[in-house]
Amino acid sequence: MSKLKQASSKNCFICGVENPVGLHLHFYEVEAGVIEAEYTAPEHFEGFPGVLHGGIVAAILDEISGRAYMGTDEKNPRFMFTGKLEIKYRKNTPIGKPLKLVGKIIEDKGRVAKAWGGIYDAETGELLAEATGVHINVPAERLDMTRLDEFGWKVYPD
């Protein structure tokens, strides 16, 4: 399978292309159920000097694990809420250094699914932080899939 880009929105904190304070991440499905992204955290997301704030680390892990189920069909994505996120901070995640983000499907029980997310040092391959998430389908009555264009939901060019 070739690398397929997932859709993004306008305002999401993680992927929103027009969010002035967002992370602006781009996600790619590299094989069925495996998502990857690259990121270099800027200084303004620093917690301790030189270290990415733990809340930003958690937000990235939440997004990358949940996106493992989303797929690449921008007209019919699988949107999920996070029901539980168990995080292991293994090492300090640096700012200003390339990171590799990975999300993988663990188990799909229909309405509820489990996925894993990891943040790696892109240069050394060392696992810096990881999380297991339990994700629940967004109920159909909560999101009108015919209105995705209002959120700017589409695949944007790199």
How would you characterize this protein structure?
The two termini are 19 Å apart. The chain has one helix and seven strands; from the N terminus they run βββαββββ. It has a single domain (4-151), classed as Roll (Thiol Ester Dehydrase, Chain A). It has one helix at 54-66, and strands at residues 4-5, 28-31, 34-40, 80-89, 98-108, 112-121, 127-137.
Q: Which second-level CATH architecture applies?
A: Roll
Strand segment count: 7
Helical amount among residues, as a percent range?
under 10%
Number of helices: 1
User: What is the ordering of alpha helices and beta strands?
Assistant: EEEHEEEE
Work out the count of structural domains: 1
SSE topology sketch:
Blueprint (H helix, E strand, L loop, with lengths): L3 E2 L22 E4 L2 E7 L13 H13 L13 E10 L8 E11 L3 E10 L5 E11 L21
Antiparallel strand pairs: 1-2, 2-3, 3-5, 4-7, 5-6, 6-7
Characteristic terms for this protein:
7-stranded antiparallel β-sheet, 158 residues, mainly beta, Thiol Ester Dehydrase, Chain A
In short:
The chain is mainly β.
